[in-house]
């Protein structure tokens, strides 16, 4: 109930969308659970969810792209769509619902309950910015229907919220105060200053997003809920694969389970496995962040990074000299620095 | 099962010949196995032991050592 109260004050239309999507996903979940043709119903339901996401989130981008191409190719039709309003949290709901349906198909979720599922879909503490918690972990926590109040929840929750608020308002916004004017008038600044601003953005986005995650995790804790961690010192990782084990963990886990691994199993071809699978997976991860081609490029940049790292591992395994060098204790900080620089360059497309 | 898994991990994923793998050696948290390796491991388990493990179960909590992987396989 408290989730719907929050949504009511924030954006009333979201309540209708959340309830409708929850009924749609729950009913398909029931069908998948009982049917022998799980695969077909799974594909239909996932397509429905994706169509909903595409309509609300990306239709505007497609229309503006086609219309801008129309200036060069006169044969293309011209579309006009006014006021595309992105419902709050739609990107997160769709990912949660896809994982719910797929986990039923895979036999991870064996029993369902509409009220529990609706609570999962609408949980206001993680509604707008994640973490993308899984139903499998959430459901046992509310199964007994009465999470009793404990003072320790308040203590833990508020500590985490304060930590998050500090990261967001004291650190991220403080950095933003210095670098935002640079983005607004780039032409007035030298390349060196712009490079420093991108470096600053690396920290700004980390404190901003991990701060939000702390607030979400802390707020959930106030109600006795344990939500998964979303960050684990990402900038101290030695390579890009490890970075994604520490950055937006709930999203990278989601991409890994529902996109990367299924794609990887399509073919044993090395080029497919080492290049196309990471690039496609991370490209999808990128464009999920927003309806802007820059996000797609950011994702592809990361995909290429993962691919290059895998090729490096392939050669490292077969070359004793390379093994010795990368095992050297002094190489470790160098690899952390190289990874950080690679990530920082990637933010250019994200801004 | 234990020996087969250790042999597979040594042959497929180990870059450093000096590392010895036991049933308790940390595989993911130590960086021996990553997402790419997990796919190969999952396919190997399916092929060798005829057990289909769902993707979300191939986690650091379930696959960080040979002992944990054996426990996971036994659940399916």
What does this structure look like?
The complex is a heterodimer of chains A (351) and B (76). Chain A is 72% helix and 0% strand. The two termini of chain A are 36 Å apart. Chain A has 351 residues and is mainly α. The longest helix of chain A is centred in the middle third of the chain and has 34 residues, at 151-184. Chain B is mainly alpha-helical. Chain B has one domain: ACP-like (Non-ribosomal Peptide Synthetase Peptidyl Carrier Protein, Chain A). Chain B is globular, with a radius of gyration of 11 Å. Classes of the chains: A mainly alpha (351), B mainly alpha (76). The A-B interface holds A 99, 103, 106-108, 134, 136, 238, 241-242, 244-245, 253, 256-258, 260-262, 264-265, 273-274, 310, 313, 316-317, 323, 326-327 and B 14-16, 31, 34-36, 38-39, 42-43, 54-60.
Structural class of chain A: mainly alpha
The percent range for helix content of chain A is: over 70%
The total count of strands of chain A amounts to: 0
Q: List the total number of helices of chain B.
A: 4
Classify the secondary structure makeup of chain B into a structural class: mainly alpha
* Greatest contact between two chains: A-B, 30 and 18 residues
Task: Based on the coordinates given, report the CATH architecture of chain B.
Answer: Orthogonal Bundle
Question: Which overall shape of chain A is indicated by the principal axes computed on the Cα atoms?
Answer: globular
CATH topology name of chain B, in short, is Non-ribosomal Peptide Synthetase Peptidyl Carrier Protein, Chain A
Low-confidence stretches of chain B: none
Total strands of chain B: the figure is 0
Order of helices and strands of chain A: HHHHHHHHHHHHHH
Number of individual domains of chain B: 1
């Amino acid at each position: 109930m408290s989730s719907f109260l929050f949504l009511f004050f924030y954006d009333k239309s979201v309540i209708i969308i959340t309830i409708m999507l929850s009924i749609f996903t729950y009913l398909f979940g029931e069908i998948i659970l009982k049917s022998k043709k799980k695969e077909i119903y799974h594909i239909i339901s996932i397509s429905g969810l994706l169509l909903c996401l595409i309509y609300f989130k990306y239709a505007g981008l497609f229309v503006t792209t086609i219309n801008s191409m129309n200036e060069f190719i006169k044969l293309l039709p011209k579309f006009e769509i006014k006021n595309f309003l992105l419902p709050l949290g739609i990107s997160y709901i769709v990912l949660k619902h896809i994982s719910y349906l797929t986990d039923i198909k895979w036999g991870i979720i064996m029993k369902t309950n509409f009220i529990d599922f609706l609570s999962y879909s609408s949980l206001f503490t993680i509604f707008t910015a994640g973490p993308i918690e899984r139903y499998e972990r959430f459901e046992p926590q509310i199964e007994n229907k009465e999470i009793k109040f404990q003072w320790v929840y308040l203590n833990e929750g508020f500590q985490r919220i304060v930590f998050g608020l500090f990261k967001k308002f004291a650190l991220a916004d403080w950095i933003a105060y210095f670098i935002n004017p640079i983005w607004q008038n780039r032409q007035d600044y030298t390349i060196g200053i712009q490079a420093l601003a991108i470096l600053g953005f690396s920290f700004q986005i980390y404190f901003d997003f991990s701060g939000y995650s702390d607030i979400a995790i802390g707020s959930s804790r106030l109600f006795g809920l344990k939500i998964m961690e979303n960050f684990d010192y990402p900038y101290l990782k030695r390579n890009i694969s490890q970075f994604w084990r520490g950055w937006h963990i709930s999203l990278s886990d989601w991409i890994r389970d529902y996109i990367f691994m299924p794609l990887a199993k399509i073919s044993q071809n090395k080029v497919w496995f080492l290049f196309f699978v990471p690039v496609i997976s991370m490209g999808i991860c990128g464009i999920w962040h927003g309806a802007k081609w820059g996000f797609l490029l950011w994702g592809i940049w990361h995909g290429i990074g993962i691919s290059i790292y895998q090729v490096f591992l392939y050669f490292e395994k077969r070359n004793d000299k390379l093994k010795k060098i990368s095992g050297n204790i002094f190489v470790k900080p160098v690899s952390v620095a190289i990874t950080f620089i690679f990530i920082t360059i990637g933010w250019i497309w994200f801004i | 099962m234990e020996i087969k898994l250790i042999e597979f991990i040594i042959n497929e994923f180990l870059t450093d010949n000096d590392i010895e793998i036991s049933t308790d050696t940390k595989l993911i948290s130590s960086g021996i196995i990553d997402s790419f390796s997990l796919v190969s491991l999952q396919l190997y388990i399916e092929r060798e032991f005829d057990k289909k493990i769902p993707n979300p179960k191939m986690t650091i909590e379930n696959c960080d050592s040979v002992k944990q992987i054996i426990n996971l396989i036994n659940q399916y």
